[in-house]
Amino acid sequence: MLGQASIDVASRGVVSGWLVAESGTDTFLCVNGEKKAKIDTFHRRQDVVDAGITDTDCGFSIDVRNILLEYQDEVVLSIENNGNVLVEQPLVLPSIKNLIANPTFSISSLNQIKHWKLNFYHRIGATFNSFISPKSLKFSDGYYTRLSFADTHNTRSQVELTPEVEFSDVLNPLQLALVAKASQETNLHIRIVSKDSRSIIYDDIFTLTNEWRHHVSSIPSEFISDLREGAAELKICTKHYGRRFVDFAFAYLAEDAVNIQLPERADVTVDSYSEEIESGKNLIANGDLSSWEKGIRFEKLNRVQELADNWFLEFSKTNKEKIAVAAVSDNSQKDPLQETLTSKFGLRVRASQNLEGYARILLPFDRIALNTVQHVLSIDVEPTNLSKRLVLPRVYLIARDAVNETAVADFVRKQTVTDRTTLQFELSASQVEKIQTKARSLPVFNIVVDIPSGADFTLYSVLLQEQSSSPVVESKNDEAVSALNIPFAFEDDCINQQLNVLKGLEEWATGKPFEQAASNVASSAKNDFKGTTSLAEFDEKVFSLVPHKLARPTRHFPLVDIIVPVYNACDDVLLCLSALIEKTDLLHRVIVVNDGDDERTATMLAAFNNAFNHLEVVTNPQNMGYTKSVNIGVKHSNADWVVVLNSDTIVSEGWLGKLMNCALSDDSVGMVGALSNAASWQSVPLIHDKNGDWNLNPLPTGTSVDEMANLVAEYSTRAYPDVGVINGFCQLINMNLLDKIGLLDEQAFPVGYGEENDMCARAVKAGFKLLIADDTYVFHAKSKSFGHEKRKVLAKQGSAALKKKHPDVDWGAVTKKIFEHPALVELREDLAKALSK
User: Fold this and answer.
1) How many CB atoms lie within 10 A of CB 391?
2) Which of 768, 573, 773 is nearest to 661 (CA)?
3) How far is CA 144 from CA 183, 244, 305, in A?
4) What is the DSSP letter of 309?
């Protein structure tokens, strides 16, 4: 006898019905005539029993999810018994094709998920990280992606994830399946947002917990046409409620997003994952201005406005309608007759002459992206005004959260640019470490370019990149080692190839302790002058010095003369002048005023005078004293600025450029001083010793002046403290100041000791600013021209003359201002900690 059967429910998930067949025969569920599943498990169907068809268990239910995965469109389901088809039923299968380009949330960098776009309030900080998922998580390819927020403030700001979706062939309703969890209970919205009005036309809510859950949202057919035509976008949205994270494992958008093919899970390890992530060269998203999602018209600028993607303009209320921005193209297009026509786009910024408060361009990136390695910041900028000249007030790094902000590093101040230039600034690993420590809990870093009054310039790119290491090449150990007769080789081939330029290897090979000289004056001239007396010997030594490459940033850059008053102390003067030759970076002239009577000193100075065209020696006919000697040097100068430098100092690499950067940071600057080991209130790390006297802060054994200067620059905040007095060991002075207040007072301070304080007091009263370049270090050996006891007497006489001349000046308050300046206090503390290690 033929059996009977019915298919009551048919879907991609389950096929159910009832079946009555001859006992002992096999019955199968077939798809398009092919046997796919044996029906041998039954349950009671009371409705069939009540109908009188059978009184036995006849109901069945079969999971067909995996069976139907290989089929699309329409199929025919049938039940076959003993070769007889008992029932047939057509089934239209909803599509399981995933429309999301990256369903497993694979990331390409800390800032980006492949084929997804993240939009959020740029000050709260958001990063992506991938982790190996638990094996119990079926909806995963082996990893899940974490979206982390570091800001602790409850900003309630909107966070949007927009997937790249292909809607072109979609006509039917859709389902979105999402597998996710969160650190705290979090509402996640599935929204369809109109592109024109930004209005929400569909909204469904999931609640995420700290356990993985599979959520499904159904998108009705009335919204499909807007998605297909590009009039609306599908978004996954949440709000920022302080520090937390959301984990995403899987997203599936299809007509049927429940009965789907799960991603293939590979055996993964941490190492295998690290190879999959694309290491983005630039830490700053869209640093090359290649994405303009918000458009390229900026007719009305808000106080905080995103121009291009991740490029923000900020300005104070007082600068409203004083700034204009336009998107421009450079002139690097290829020949139009060729197949392609390309150009580089930039942001042109124009400001009125009367900016008040702040105005700046910011490019944010998450602090977690800044590893403790060497980095290089490159800025492609071009003056677009008629003069083709731009002075950038400041390029710096700030750390932010939703409420707070602090500057953590300066790259440059008062940078002069002529024509299109790529500025480059290095950020050492130790500087990065300090920045990360200083930023503390602030999650977002911003590269900031200040906009000056009257500016007209174009920014084409801002790139912050890890500095690449040197390529590894084949070793030539044997040749390098044998050429130097060194009985050893290094494990690092790069070192072996440079053995011919490395100094001290012979001493190193002996195994004996090697002490480095405290001074860092150049190679051949270091301490080899001792015992030298004749002009020929001095000539040989002086001519062996390697002059520093001198630069004048622009033809309008101020001219600088360095005045060095000399009174005997030949060996100290030799070290001072040698360092000036080898360490001074800006174009300059050195005016040496010899006020002594020592023949050896005169012979040495003659050798310098013969060797270098930019060094001139002026010899006083008789001893005239320190103050008159300085004034004589100033009268010999025709520069815009002069540096009065003691002859017992040793300058560091690039010292003059740093002083000038400080000097040009404000039009009212009259004088700039450096930090030193022994410069009273400008001493670092300690001002006083245990006895209350001025501390000499000797360089640690094996530490050079350059190394100490690098340490100062590393820990400096470049605050350029505004003070009331600057120590006279090293003073950069504006000639406009001297024209207005006059030279040093020769009558009251004939031998020095108080003359610089007098000049500082007169400068402040005349309205000039006195700044300390807190990123600049000059070593001071302390004068040997006078003995310790005589210096005490002279200091006492100078102090009395100073009080008599300026009874209205509270010198205690003046020096207290330097002693307690927060930037200097922090710098001293940081240096003390660093040196103690």
Assistant:
1) 17
2) 773
3) 14, 16, 33
4) T
DSSP 8-state assignment for residue 518? S
In 273-315, DSSP assigns E strands to 304-306, 312-315
What CA–CA distance (Å, rounded) separates 101 from 115? 6
Q: Which CATH superfamily is domain 523-836 in?
A: Spore Coat Polysaccharide Biosynthesis Protein SpsA; Chain A (3.90.550.10)
158 vs 145: CA distance, rounded Å: 19
Rounded to an integer, what distance in angstroms lies between the CA atom of residue 742 and that of residue 515?
Answer: 47
Structure tokens at 656: 């003059």
Least confident of 475-489, 623-637, 737-751: 475-489
CA geometry: angle at 783 spanning 797 and 792, to 5°?
30
Predicted pLDDT at 677: 95
**What pLDDT was estimated at residue 692?**
87
**Strands 312-315, 304-306: parallel, antiparallel or unpaired by DSSP?**
antiparallel
Average pLDDT score over the chain: 85
The structural architecture, per CATH, of the domain 107-276 is: Sandwich (2.60)
Contact 586, 560 (CB under 8 A): yes
pLDDT of res. 267: 62
- Count of residues in the chain: 837
> What letters, b where the CB count within 10 A reaches 16 and e where it falls short, cover 695-713?
bebebeeeebbbbbbbbbb
- Asked if 703 contacts 518 with a C-beta cutoff of 8 angstroms, the reply is yes
Q: Do domains 4-92 and 304-332+343-466 have the same CATH topology?
A: no
